[in-house]
Write a structure and sequence with these properties.
This protein is an alpha/beta fold. It is about 40% helix and about 15% strand. About 50% of the residues are buried.
Length: about 625
């Protein structure tokens, strides 16, 4: 796996060496195994390599071959199939790094090669003959690509820190994106923006081309939402096909030259199913790391499970070949973890309440020799997608056959089917409207955001939300297409992948997520909604597809796990340090203007009378998320 960077001079015949040296110093820690640099005319490319897969031993970047030069972070799946299409001898394929495989695919199909590429990749390809540059990113993997340009140059890297190190790149906060960060605003028109003004990210499934005369706008090459829905007669075929495809996605992510395989583990279906498919395929034992509470998990509401230890252990015991490693993060600091993640990502994150245990697990895993860390981060939108289950459209169009089948085949009974799939979606718009009535006189995000209300009014945040079609109340929706687009677009899918790529690079390991496999996502897009409900049982695709693999208490449990359920007690134990951080923000003009610091202080003070689920939720969404944004703003 590589960190790469580059500069394309648009106005002069060459690039400034000292600018590239600054980028190299910033990205250097990403690749301790090898480094490379290549410059010719207006283009300069650099790379730092971290060798993980067996083929990485043969990788040399930048890769220059004939008229083409490439740098990238590239881990390809389905190598044998791609090798056959490219007519590469099987013996030669074992010595061919993924970067060379992608380069040969480009030579055969040009930018159309993306149709044949599976896995986690982002890259830059320079065509010496055409004097043009192509930047591209995978469909959904743990990768990323950032860029900035003006009339003189285009600067790019898969490491934001490297981009910020370039002297010409401006460092100014993007007010709209920071407001969106504080209020969880999903705006499809902003998916390319970052929290830095004029620094852009390439969203998943996009690419861009440029030459000396023009930097073309990014174009979308991957649109799974346009794939036609399957129409298989026997629903059991969906579950068999899903199981086979899921197993291939997991197996492909086990390629590892040396070191151990780890897993971010929990008591849920996503990580449990990854464990069930990975552990039997390993010669060594799978290291499954689970965050467990150090303090009482007072922050978990009745429907959430604050301590997943026993349930997760039952999954590990059922599967076998797993080292079950509970991590209580006893010595971790919440405020220090926020500062550490800012150093890694150079931007604030959404789930600041989880930083301490994520860092603790990654650090411990690296100490124990893990080189590949698996996650099930994308499962909620793919393998364990709950489905919609709304039968009201069938009533409207008079589709009595569908209605009869839903009730006749229901495994939860006619009343539950009526309640969940007809009455609830029918009444939900009214319930959502009633919830809005209760907030009359208050801004929608008052209960979950640290944004300063005066600043929100100044930038017309409410108007931005209306224009984006964003519901600040997060009312439940029963439109399947809308929900899927909300999860996959608006930057969410790609932004999470970028964070995991950077987390892995900071700990010298590769984080891989089989639930975000391109093949799996495309399959899930094409599956009819009834399959996700499985005769009245939500999350039916994974529950039927993985039947008999996990304990029933995990497979059919109704309580989702809640990591960091003890974060309220952790924050109260660090109240002096957190109060000092708030003092720092109070003294900073920008942080004081954009954040509601009195509200953040009140959330902290409320913990003195005890921790509750409501207070814990506000600790994460108001205090800690606000602290992350505030500490970021002190950089300006």
């Amino acid at each position: 796996m590589s960190g790469f960077y580059g500069e394309f001079s648009l106005a002069s015949s060459g690039t400034e060496t000292e600018n590239l040296e600054a980028m190299a110093r910033a990205i250097g820690p990403w690749g301790p195994d090898a480094k490379g640099y290549w410059q010719e005319g207006p283009i300069a490319l650099g790379s730092y390599l971290l060798r993980i897969t067996p083929e990485d031993a043969f990788d040399v970047q930048p890769s220059v071959e004939g008229d083409l030069a490439l740098v990238g972070r590239i881990r390809l799946d389905e190598r044998e199939n791609l090798g056959r299409l490219l007519e590469i001898d099987r013996a030669d394929l074992t010595r061919l790094p993924d970067s060379q495989l992608l380069l040969r695919a480009w030579r055969r199909w040009g930018q159309g090669c993306v149709a044949y590429l599976y896995g986690d990749w982002a890259c830059a390809i320079w065509d010496r003959h055409r004097q043009s540059l192509w930047l591209g990113r995978d469909a959904a993997g743990n990768s990323g690509l950032y860029y900035w340009y003006d009339s003189q140059q285009l600067v790019f890297s898969n490491c934001l820190k490297a981009l910020l190190a370039h002297p010409a790149v401006p460092k100014r906060p993007n007010a709209d994106r920071i407001a969106g960060q504080l209020t969880v605003l999903m705006d499809a028109t902003q998916e390319s923006a970052t929290v830095y003004a004029d620094i852009w990210r390439l969203p998943v499934g996009q690419a861009m081309r440029c030459d000396r005369s023009e930097i073309e706008p990014p174009y979308t090459w991957w649109q799974p939402e346009l794939l036609p829905e399957f129409d298989w007669k026997d629903d059991r075929d969906y579950y068999v096909a899903f199981r086979d495809l899921y197993a291939a996605a997991v197996s492909d992510r086990l390629r590892n030259a040396k070191g151990s395989i780890g897993l971010m583990f929990s008591s849920g279906l996503d990580s449990g199913s990854v464990a069930a498919l990975a552990a039997p395929r390993l010669h060594d034992r799978l290291q499954a790391y689970i965050s467990v509470p150090h303090f009482p998990p007072d922050g978990a509401p009745p429907r959430r499970l604050g301590d997943e230890t026993n349930l997760a252990r039952s999954t590990a015991d059922r599967i076998g070949n797993i080292d079950f490693i509970p991590v209580s993060s006893e010595g971790s600091s919440v405020i220090s973890s926020i500062e550490a993640l800012l150093k890694i990502h150079d931007r604030p994150g959404h789930a600041a309440a989880n930083y301490y245990w994520i860092l603790e697990i990654l650090s411990l895993a690296r100490e124990r020799g893990v080189r590949v860390m698996l996650t099930g981060q994308g499962g909620n939108a793919t393998v364990s997608w709950s489905g919609v289950g709304n039968l009201c459209p069938a009533i409207v169009r008079g589709d009595w056959r569908t209605l009869f089948a839903a009730f006749h085949n229901s495994k939860v009974g006619a009343w539950v089917t009526l309640k969940r799939q007809i009455l609830k979606p029918m009444l939900q718009p009214s319930l959502n409207a009633f919830q809005r009535l209760k907030t009359i006189g208050r801004v929608a995000w008052e209960d979950y955001s640290a944004i300063n209300p005066q600043w929100a009014a100044q930038i017309d945040l409410a108007g931005q939300m209306r224009a984006a079609g964003h519901d600040p109340f997060f009312g439940e929706s029963y439109n399947s297409q809308h929900l899927h687009l909300a999860r996959f677009r608006s930057g969410r899918l790609g932004a999470v992948g970028e964070l995991w790529m950077e987390n892995g690079a900071a700990h010298q390991l590769d984080v891989r997520d089989p639930t975000r496999d391109r093949r799996l996502i495309e399959f899930c897009w094409r599956v009819p909604d009834r399959v996700f409900w499985a005769n009245g049982i939500q999350r039916g695709l994974i529950r039927q597809g993985m039947a008999g693999v996990l304990p029933d208490a995990v497979m059919y449990g109704q309580r989702k796990g809640l990591q960091a359920a003890d974060v309220g007690d952790r924050v109260w134990a660090e109240r002096k340090a957190i109060s000092a951080a708030l003092d720092r923000l109070e003294a900073h003009s920008l942080a004081k203007a954009w954040l509601d610091l009195p509200k953040m202080r009140s959330v902290l003070a409320a913990l003195e009378s005890g921790v509750t689920p409501t207070k814990t939720r506000q600790v994460g969404s108001i205090l800690l998320r606000g602290l992350g944004v505030g500490l970021f703003l002190t950089r300006f």
